[in-house]
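Chapter summary example.
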Amino acid sequence: MRLTNRDAKKVAHRAAEGVQIEFLDTRGVRPCRAKLRSMSLDRIDEVVVPEEALSEERNVELPMYVSMFVRHALERAMYLREELPREAVIAATLERYQGEVNNGGHAQFVANVGWYAEYRADIREGLAILGLNDAARIFADLEIFAELEPKRLATAGEAADKIDPYSCRETGQTQAR
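The structure predicted for these 177 residues follows.
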């Protein structure tokens, strides 16, 4: 089973509801309206995204914009994970997980993102919220593998170019165990 942008969008939508602010489009073409309820220096309560990302025809881009906002807040603006909306952090983590796994399998995800407990908790929670039981089972199998085979997990970067046992590249499907 593959995670889709549509699945991540369900979580991301919760983080983007009810907010209002004006800012310039990154292309500099026109001012965009996005929504923002309140933002203080010690906590971000809502996520800022371009208004068009909330439209029905462009909403597949919403997870990307939420992820960009969260990553900027964490990496550039020096916010802590606890200072951001929980749903936005989950959506950003799921978006990253989806991208890495769909691009190079679970080995690539572990090699590029790492095996941090906070990311794993985000992924478990996000998959449960979305009701993606098959994907949650696959991730649980990966966690069991990591516990039983820590040395093999540590070499995931070396294995990223090999076929992932949880992915069928020929068909684009993921195997459930």
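To summarize the output: Residues 5-168 form one domain.
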